[in-house]
Write a structure and sequence with these properties.
Elements (H helix, E strand, L loop, with lengths): L2 H9 L2 H33 L9 E8 L6 H13 L3 E6 L10 E6 L12 E7 L3 H6 L3 E4 L8 E2 L10 E5 H7 L9 E4 L7 E7 L13 H5 L1 E4 L1 E2 L4 E8 L4 H15 L3 E3 L3 E2 H8 L1 H35 L1 H9 L4 H38 L6 H27 L3 H7 L1
Parallel strand pairs: 4-10, 6-11, 7-9
Antiparallel strand pairs: 1-12, 1-13, 1-14, 2-12, 3-4, 3-8, 5-9, 7-10, 8-9
């Protein structure tokens, strides 16, 4: 076994060996956390909103004269629903991934007006019975709103309706045993008025879901049946598959025909809204992946350089070993074992540093915990990388002829 002479050789090159160990340790600590963060961000990009994303678009407008009325809003919606290609439309206060919306504290007891006494925080959507059909939500339990459930009022001024539909994530947080249907909740804007849960939808992402890994922030949603008319309007329109581009301008024409005294915002398909919302996460994932690749390359080059230096420095030792009968394979094995010992030491040290770095990132920036399986996989990759980087210098050492090595010293 060649471990003893290898350790003796390393003791004579302590600084070089220490540099390799530190470099490997830092590489493991950084790339394991970077890969974990990239994984989180990539997972965010794939999270479904719970809606029929590919066939939905939002259209907002503001009246240039008049204040708008419930009758006018109903007329607008009737015209939009009559456009060929439109499946359904609903007036709403916001939509998933919009970036801003209405948020309320939710409690199981009346009177809880501050966050400390509340059981959850949730996004609040105000939509009538057309909301579920328009967004394409999957109703897991209970029923949809009826016309009698809808309350005419202001999104922000209340009063709160007597019924609501909640997302499954919020239902599970408030009622872990699954008995949410029929129970009452209290929203902080009207903390004394009970709101009965009449339905549970599988998923409805919040307007601020992008950029957060907190499931409570991204998935907790309440739909309340409030119809609000005014000088501004926001409609969500669902169209037949494949007809989005053709239908969007027709919907705008229908609204202009209903009342030309309005200014429109840009019509935005939900696919585009999703892409824009997750742009920062996508850019961060790409940037971190590049940093990770550069770091791995630098580490590999460092190992190649140091191993080459040791080969050149130990030419006499290699010549003597070759003269005493060591085969080329034995020389290669010697340097690979030496490199493996250094990488192993670096990996063990790096795993401790990686854990410490992850705890710091978690406590200061809300980064998720680094799974042990992911850390072990990264450690294995780093060891294989180190061994791969040492192969070429080791093969070069094996080609040294004994006489040539002894004459060159």
């Amino acid at each position: 076994m060649e471990v003893a002479p290898i350790l003796a050789a390393l003791r004579r090159s302590k600084i070089g060996a220490l540099l390799v160990v530190i470099q490997v340790a830092l590489t493991l600590a950084i790339i394991s956390n970077v890969i974990s963060i990239v994984g989180e961000r990539t997972a965010l990009l794939r999270r479904p909103t719970g809606t029929d994303e590919h066939n939905l678009f939002a259209i907002g407008f503001r009246l240039t004269s008049g204040s708008g009325s419930k009758a006018a809003l109903d007329a607008d919606l009737s015209r939009v629903r009559a456009v060929p290609g439109v499946v359904d439309a609903v007036a709403t206060n916001t939509y998933p991934l919009r970036g801003s919306g209405w948020s309320e504290g939710v409690s199981l007891l009346p009177g809880a007006s501050n966050q400390r006494d509340q059981n959850a925080q949730s996004a609040v959507y105000a939509m009538d019975r057309h909301g579920i059909g328009t967004l394409g939500l999957h109703l897991l339990a209970g029923r949809n709103f009826t016309s009698e459930d809808v309350l005419q009022g202001n999104f922000n001024a209340g009063p709160m309706p007597a019924v609501a539909i909640v997302s499954q994530a919020l239902a599970q947080q408030l009622f872990p045993r699954g008995e949410a249907l029929g129970k009452s909740i209290y929203l902080s804007s009207d903390a004394g008025r009970p709101v009965a849960i009449i339905g549970v939808v599988e998923r409805l992402q919040s307007p601020v879901a992008a950029g957060t890994i907190d499931k409570a922030v991204s998935e907790n949603s309440v739909i309340v049946p409030i119809a609000s008319a005014g000088p501004g309007g926001l409609l969500m329109v669902r169209v037949k598959p494949g007809s989005l581009d053709a239908t969007m301008p027709e919907v705008k024409k229908a609204l202009i025909a209903s009342n030309p005294q309005r200014i429109f915002g840009r019509l935005r398909p939900l696919d585009e809204i999703r892409s824009t919302a997750y742009e920062k996460d996508r850019s961060m994932a790409i940037a971190l992946s590049i940093v990770c690749c550069v770091l791995v390359l630098v580490t590999a080059l460092g190992i190649v350089g140091l191993t080459s230096f040791w080969v050149a420095r130990r030419k006499r030792q290699i010549g003597i070993r070759r003269a005493l009968g060591a085969t080329r394979a034995a020389i290669v094995r010697y340097f690979l074992i030496e490199n493996a010992l250094l990488c192993l030491a670096g990996v063990l040290f790096g795993m401790v540093v990686a854990r410490g770095l992850n705890v710091w990132l978690w406590s200061h920036y809300g980064v998720g915990r680094l799974p042990a399986s992911e850390l072990l996989l990264c450690a294995l990759v780093v060891i294989l990388l180190g061994q791969g980087a040492a192969v070429l210098p080791s093969l070069r050492a094996a080609k040294v002829e004994p006489t040539q090595a002894l004459r060159s010293v």
